[in-house]
Specification:
The chain is mainly α. It has two domains: 28-240, no CATH class; 241-394, no CATH class. It has 17 helices and two strands. The protein has helices at 2-40, 47-63, 77-87, 93-120, 123-135, 137-145, 150-165, 169-182, 190-199, 205-216, 219-224, 228-239, 260-285, 292-310, 320-328, 337-356, 364-383, and strands at 245-246, 314-315. Strands 1-2 form a two-stranded parallel sheet. Helix 3 crosses helix 4 (93-120), helix 4 runs antiparallel to helix 5 and helix 8 runs parallel beside helix 10 (205-216).
Length: 394
């Protein structure tokens, strides 16, 4: 009897290994397909490339390293460093932009894979999560077609979240500082970072590490001759604007832009109040949470979708990071699957004007209704009592 049981176990083990082999083969095929997808979109360009990125690369090619000391772009200098390195290569400007975007797509996928392995303990599930992120429409449209920078700062945020899960406070703050140095919109996640600081009891020295990291990103530009006042003024200039909502389905899709002067400041205070109340609720919830790190991932998703919904002067791409963290939360609870899918649909509708040069199939003031439902759902899920890997999707 015992020998029969042993043989049966051996057969089951062989079948499991064979099944794993087949799953790995399919995963490799899927990964190859997402690379092929990006390759097929390599020739696509938008007005952003024509008006901004191509002239920046040409300016860097003509001026060399010294060009980094000039005020020729409205992006912060870490992205300009990447363009400068690309300008040294014997490739056309569009390829430089797309290669940078591809590289950080892979960095993003690696970060999601690392978090998935930490949460689930399965290399196969982790690899599937990484490929799934690369398959998300917003991710490949943003980078492979549009050639935008959102995978850069979001990938750094994801790695900050990975080190949060590992309870490495130093690298959490260092990677957040790098993300913020790339893009001002990483600041949406400051409430999440401060909650990590309080709930995980981070050391005060991490604040110095973050400031030092951010400051070091300015060093090459300073060496090239750019003034510190010019560098500090980049984000000040980006914060200005005169449009309540730029092709984005959020609260201000319902407010005519003629009321900008009246509504803009009020909207900023409203957003601050909403986020402050939410953080208060989080601090009251924290003592009852069974898995702090899992819950903080849910908080990141909630903050990432709430802040661009309630802030004025948002653009079509500003839900990108919140959508990525919502997809990560599918690893925690399958209830996040529907919000993750809806966020991809609303993103494609938002991107229509810039990427496809067409009006969205559904007016954005109606899309904002779906976005509101998603935001409320993701925030509500973060206020519930999360369990580690409760009802995961896969």
């Amino acid at each position: 009897m015992s020998s029969a049981v042993t043989r049966a176990k051996a057969v089951v083990s062989r079948l499991r290994q064979r099944g794993d082999w087949q799953q790995w083969a399919l995963l490799v095929v899927a990964f190859g397909a997402v690379l092929g997808l990006r390759w097929s979109l390599r020739a696509g360009s938008t007005a952003d490339f024509v008006v901004y990125m191509r002239p920046w690369i040409e300016f860097l090619r003509e001026g060399g390293f010294a060009a980094l000391g000039q005020e020729f772009a409205n992006y912060n200098v870490p992205y300009l460093y990447l363009l400068f390195v690309g300008s040294l290569l014997p490739v056309e400007p569009l390829s430089i932009v797309k290669l940078i975007a591809l590289f950080f797509d892979l960095v993003l996928a690696a970060g999601v894979t690392a978090i998935a392995y930490r949460l689930r303990g399965s290399i196969l599930v982790a690899g599937l999560a990484g490929v799934a992120i690369l398959l998300a429409p917003e991710v490949f449209l943003n980078s492979a077609l549009w050639g935008q920078t959102d995978s850069i700062w979001t990938s750094l945020l994801v790695w900050a979240a990975y080190f949060m899960v590992r309870r490495n406070d130093t690298l959490t703050w260092v990677f957040f500082a790098l993300a913020f140095a790339v893009k001002l919109q990483a600041g949406f996640f400051v409430p999440w970072l401060l909650l990590c600081f309080i709930v995980q009891r981070h050391r005060w020295r991490v604040l110095a590490y973050a400031v030092a990291t951010f400051g070091l990103t300015y060093l090459p530009a300073l060496i090239a001759g750019r003034s510190i006042s010019s560098l500090l003024g980049i984000y000040v200039g980006q914060a200005g604007g005169n449009v309540l909502a730029v092709s984005v389905p959020n609260l201000y899709s319902w407010v005519p832009n003629q009321y900008f002067a009246l509504v803009n400041s009020a909207g900023i205070f409203l957003a601050l109040a909403i986020v402050a109340v939410l953080c208060l609720l989080y601090l009251r919830r924290a003592p009852f949470v069974t898995s702090i790190e899992t819950w903080l991932l849910q908080v990141a998703a909630a903050v990432g979708v709430l802040v661009p919904f309630v802030l004025p002067q948002m653009h079509d791409r500003y839900f990108y990071a919140g959508a990525v963290f919502t997809m990560i939360c599918v690893l925690v609870n399958r209830a996040y699957l529907v919000p993750a899918v809806v966020l991809q649909i609303t993103a494609m509708l938002s991107y229509a004007g810039m990427v496809f040069l067409t009006a969205p199939a559904v007016p954005l003031n109606l899309v904002a209704l779906a976005q509101l439902v998603v935001v409320v759902g993701v925030v509500w899920a973060s206020l519930s009592r999360p369990q580690a890997a409760a009802r995961p999707f896969f």
